[in-house]
Amino acid sequence: MESPLNTAHVYQRNAEAYVQARRFEDALSSYKKAADLLLEAMQLTEVDKVLDSLKLQYEYHLRQQQVVRHKQKVFEILKKVVEKRLAAMAHYW
Questions:
Q1: What topology is assigned to 4-90 in CATH?
Q2: Is a pLDDT exceeding 70 seen at residue 93?
Q3: 81 neighbors 32 (Cβ within 8 angstroms)
């Protein structure tokens, strides 16, 4: 059975790939799952340095969810701009 920490890292890598593929909802889901797994991992240790590291990773995944939401909004805006320009150019052809 994989540890929550290792599984969280898998979800993080998946999330990064989803962002690159512009699959923002999948990326958000993966970052959330990674954060949840890090919380689970925190319950499995009492070592202060490990807890500090897990907390930092958890906070990173929460911030990444905000970053992905922002990228998604920017992408949607740019997509609309491109669609309008293409539609305008179609009138010239």
A1: Methane Monooxygenase Hydroxylase; Chain G, domain 1 (1.20.58)
A2: no
A3: no
